[in-house]
Amino acid sequence: MRVYCAEDYNRASRIAANLISAQIIMKPDCVLGLATGSTPIGTYEELIRRYEQGDLDFSKVHSINLDEYRGLSPENDQSYRYFMNRHLFDSVNIDKKNTFVPDGLEPDQEKACRDYEETIRAHGGIDLQILGLGHNGHIGFNEPGGVFEKQTHCVTLTENTREANARFFASMDEVPTEAYTMGIGSIMQAKKIVVIVSGESKKEIVKKAFLGPITPEVPASVLQLHHDVTLVGDKAALSDFPR
Q1: What does the pLDDT look like over 131-187, one tens digit per residue?
Q2: CATH number at residue 224
Q3: What CA–CA distance (Å, rounded) separates 130 from 194?
Q4: What is the set of active-site residues?
């Protein structure tokens, strides 16, 4: 595992953008696994800036997102499809037909999950997967539990995760209780993984995930078994991580 410790969030975002930019330049038709949430926004802003400067071309890139709330339409301003359009897709020359997010409106859970796994397979897998890290160690919406879920599945969100996301909604009652998410097995099949962390509140879970035992109680701990993981964080998030 490689670790980049940046002075602050903005510099960490630039490092993460460097890694993604290199992937796009080396393989213009690459498949990017994308994440949502507040942490990667700075990285996406940096990618947009580089596109506007003429340094990046997204025209052949495909993207496959980690997850989507069950029950939200793509037009809902809290859906992850809406998030990706707002924070990246609308500002670069990516073909939206080549961008994939789980279908939050598919009522048949098994079909929604099966179809998404087929999307991943049909595109030859993910070249570079971007991940954030939840305070309880979740990646995507893979919550702590008794087993590592292998493939895309529908998950009931924990109260802690719903509370963490409540700031984006008008009230707690509006926060969805379920989501479709790539499984741990799907994530681990990515050729490269970049984990972005920021803030002092993440320092304990960073230590548990990357230096503690591998356990489904800390889903991100499984990343210790991946052959090509890069951890990018600011000094606050990595303050308990050995240099």
Answers
A1: 999 999 999 999 998 889 889 999 988 787 788 778 778 888 888 889 999 999 999
A2: 3.40.50.1360
A3: 5
A4: 67, 136, 138, 143
